[in-house]
Amino acid sequence: TIAQYAIGPDGSLGSAPISTVSTGASPQGIAIDPQGRYLYVQNSAGTATISQYTIGSGGVLSPMSPPSVASQGNAFTLLIDSGGRYLYLGGSNGLFQYTIGPGGVLSPMSPASLAWGVYSWGVAIDPTTHYLYDGQYSAGTVTQASVGSTGALSTLSPATVSTASGQGGVIVDPTGRNVYATVTSGKMYEFAIGTGGLLQSMGIASVAGSSVAVQGRAIDPTGRYLYAVTNSGISQFSIDSGGQLNPLATPSVPAGTSPRVLVVR
Description:
It is a single chain. With 265 residues, the protein is an all-beta fold. 0% of the residues lie in helices and 55% in strands. It has no helices and 22 strands. The strands form 6 sheets. The protein has a 4-stranded antiparallel beta sheet, with no helix packed on it. Strands 7-8-9-10 form a 4-stranded antiparallel beta sheet, with no helix packed on it. A 4-stranded antiparallel beta sheet has the order 11-12-13-14, with no helix packed on it. The radius of gyration is 19 Å and the shape is globular. The mean pLDDT is 90.
């Protein structure tokens, strides 16, 4: 299920959800379109599906018709482009791609999926929605693709750039100039977005601490700072004018037990 809470004037959540709605089995990811009209949930167990809802008055969710569309199991990333036109789902069976149609209903593109690797661990789109980057966990690469006029993806040439095995996901900075890819060894691979969206290697930074597998990463809205969360805490970097990462004077701060998600407002 999904529990829905009202946010009070001081930002606190209500003591109990205002309502709940049913999903499929093992919901593992949520995405909301940029206009706040539609919500999608990836269900990874059993018959894998994406549940789809409209967001009504007071934030109440209502299932669409149909209430779900087919997807894939073991999915890791659910991503909507900045224009709210396309949805991409990365997982153990590659990348699935959908258009968001009238009323928010998802329709598979043609082709419906791209088997350019297994374990699409983290997907990111540049701010112009011209390019998409997809971290491949087992291969230790980042796939680079162009986003066509219908949202369908086409790999660039070359199709991939190398990082290291254990690819943990990618993030694009808000200016659309740089991409950062993390791996489980605690390395942050730095890339510039060059002509035609092709990634150009700039170097490698390291997170702080003894348990360094990066679980989440975020960049502040100005594009000046990057944060990476691990079991050792939150590593913090400044991003210089050339896009390279530099540890702050205090390279990390504690973050509780086994943190997984990081959000910067």
